[in-house]
Fold this protein.
Amino acid sequence: MKLQRKNRRALALGALAVSGALALTACGSDDTGGKDNAGGGSSTAASNSSIKCDGAKGQLLADGSSAQKNAIDAWVKEFSQACGVQINYKGGGSGAGVTAFGQGQVAFAGSDSALKPEDVAASKKVCSGGQGIDLPMVGGPIAVGYNVPGVSDLVLDAPTLAKIFDDKIQNWNDPAIKKLNPNAKLPDLKIQAFHRSDESGTTDNFTKYLKAAAPSDWTYSGGKAWQAKGGQAAPQSSGVAQQVKQTNGAVGYFELSYAKELSTVAIDTGASAPVKATVDGATKAIADAKVVGTGSDLSLKLNYATKADGAYPMVLVTYEIACDKGNKADTLPATKAFLRYIASEDGQKILTEKDYAPIPEAIISKVRTTIEGLS
Amino acid sequence: MSDKQRPSSLRGASLPRWTPWAIAAGSLAVAIVLGLAGGLHSRVQWGLIAAVLFVLGTYGVTARVEGRRQAKDRVVTSLVWVAFLIALVPLVSLVWVTVKRGVKVLDPYFLTHSMGVVADTEPGGGIYHAIIGSLEQVGLATLIGAPVGVLTAIYLVEYGRGALARSVTFFVDVMTGIPSIVAGLFILSLMLMTKTQPFGFAGSLALAILMMPVVVRSTEEMLKLVPNELREASLALGVPKWRTILKVVLPTSLGGITTGIVLAIARIAGETAPVLLLVFGNPFINTNPFEGAQSSLPLYIYQQYANSAGEGAAYDRAWAASLTLIAFVMILNLAARGIARWKAPKTGR
Amino acid sequence: MDISTQHTDAAASPGAPGPAAHQRAARAVARPGDRIFIGLTRGSGILLLVIMAAIAVFLTYRACLAISDDHGNFLTTFEWNTGLTPPSFGIAVLVYGTVVSSVIAMAIAVPVAVAIALFLTHYAPRRLSGPIAYVIDLLAAVPSIVYGLWGALILVPHMNGLFGWLDKYLGWTGIFSWNGGAPRSMLTVGILLAIMILPIITNVSREVFRQVPRMHEEAALALGATRWEVIRMSVLPFGRSGVISASMLGLGRALGETMAVATVLSPTFEIKASLLDSGGGTFAQNIASKFSEATEFGRDALIASGLVLFVITLLVNGAARLIIARRKEYSGANA
């Protein structure tokens, strides 16, 4: 009998815990916009008025490139406040995004490389009567950051970069580096080259550049996974940036937005002066790109070997991927409104604040036309 | 010390009680001198040198005064102390760092708001959505895992004989060793086959798989502690066996069983890998575990850390969420202890 | 056989029920309630078996899809490129990394954990041992991701000193040579895993040592044994099988640990002779870090590696059970 009374007490305790949890459910809030203590808040009011919502509502699921995560975060903030749509962009990686899109799990995906033929084939099952298309939306310079005490300006060219990341140049006072930097005091320090441990579009574009600009020194086939031997690895761009910051003699590649407190390498492209990793430089390089997509697809072919003055050749273009026809009816208005907003002048303007490169006018105007045609 | 006289033939010479302290102080001093002279920067190295000196010194002094056997005893004593102190350093540092970094942004606002539209790079936002996700996923996992685990344990203890019971016992053991990521992959492969979208309950299923063997193990131990006399008395009164189990055996061991379940909950609440593969993550509040992406505390910590480059707002949030998670686990642990003390079976020991 | 031994052992020990006697009674009077209840409990047992079988079957199925398209040798290839055409990937590096990091972790954690358990049961003042035991209980439940965060922030920078020292004095062995890179290597992983599994092994070992019959210890003391001799002669032999199963619990965690490894290791697909140079990888870490970018085929390949991890865990567990069963005959412990 005593036992049973105790049971009842345990039951009561359990009930208390459950009701407590339920009570907790009622008091949370998604409304985090009010506590606006971040930079960029000032532009909120100004740009809100220009966002057309078109009756968009609900929640939008999206996944893809982590390279554009910070840009999407900024856009989502503006867009959600204007339209009340929740956009859940996971930033799990380009591959994850394309796979999820092909399985019909997300409304749109972000990818650092254009859809492959088999991806397009998979997307046809999801887009009834249409297919997935690439819409270039975010440009970004891939900076090569380094941590060498006493060296604040460093110039490298593609062959030297290739040799450094292939473990063929192992010390900062190597003659090849000295030749490019006659005035710098290069220490006798081992080079610690960091690459991404996960598969990544950033690696893909970085090695594409090395392959295009220094074919004899970079002999690997390229791809999202790092293939060269040697060097050290860290997960995500943030991980690489963190390691470069912490390690003496380190060098690594990541999107410019991660390079905040690091010195970055200027690239000797063969132009009149070495080019620093800047937003303008990236936009200039993207302007050199050709649209190679067919139909409404707008995938670009970048000219990594560009020698144009001021053009920074190591760039990454992130595409948003959606169906040209046959988007799901319940997500179409929100998808369209969001894409329209981020392709608009206001949307592209935010990119510069976040260290991304806007897409050149000639290309983005085509993107806008395509978005209006989405159905 | 060496000139100390033997007081009687029956008692061996023994060192005064303060000897260990004296040797400890001495070796610490020597270590500091060595460290300063040798230019060793890390305090940890000083500590290690002191530890080595302490063990050697103790052996030397004791062997001279008290003999080899006593010396061995003292050395083991000091080794045990040293092992304990060395192990304490990282563990204390872990707790300390988590608390110190965690309290930075941990406030009611943080606990009652989701990330919403706050970008990873900006300050603000909270973990409410992750707490809800964690509570629901772990709760559902418990609803599945605990009954199955307890019933299996009852089968093994009260009924189990023959090949079935033997294989269940064996596979429960094997299941205890399943890497959490493998459980996640299993549910994922099911999801890929059925083309299901990620949702919270998928995470629960993986967690339930991880939970079951732990519950079986602890419940088994508890049921075995129930004195046989109780069962026999009940059966002798003509009570059917199933009622005997429900009304006599289970109530007697309820405290221990609950403790085991609560500890299993604490264990799965911190699992990151399976959740990472299964629930997608979501910066907004989603209270429905059966539909749509959810977040969870370990997943939130991982994502914030991965996007943080080791500093800034996201990094602070990751630590604050870690502190919350540890606090949650600690509360569960305390609850388990409370229940155990409250309903401990009288075992005679 | 070992299983049945254990079962009868447990059944024969004084506190435990004698299943055989009840079984007969239950069968004599088979009431519907009984039948339902037996069905329920047996059903749960069978459910567990089904889950295990399903895990094995599904993983094997997905794994076969990937392995049949692998252009490298799945066992010996030193790369993981599932995105290439043709794909080429192998688990050699992962097997090596997983085994090495776990061995390091066990080599450090087991002796220290046993020492702490002895400290708590036989050396520490009573007032101290209670709270400390509680803290260690708590640490056993600290999520591994937190250990990972701590490892990246505190442990890795502190390894520089140790690595420099090892390289200076033991570098000639080759195992401990260091190229001066960031100390994110197998040794760091092993140490972090050791710290992580230490509380678990300590916990279980402490429970076992507490069960040592007081009589044994008092008898040894009465014969004039020192405290160490008491421990060596009565405590350790009694607790051996318990300590082994505790270690296996820890090893299981170390083998499958994901997040803690992923945050402190600098993974590359090569096997380094030195434990101090960064590189290598483990199964769980590789799955977690490659998973997000992987295509559907890539995921199958990762699942294949998960299957191998599953098999390794199975083998380790089986071996441990054999050892425990054999030891038990000598020690008389019923842990």
About this structure: Strands of chain C lie at 80-81, 88-89. Chain C touches chain A at residues 79-84, 157, 179-182, 184, 262-263, 266-268, 270, 278-279, 289-296, 298-299 (CB under 8 Å).
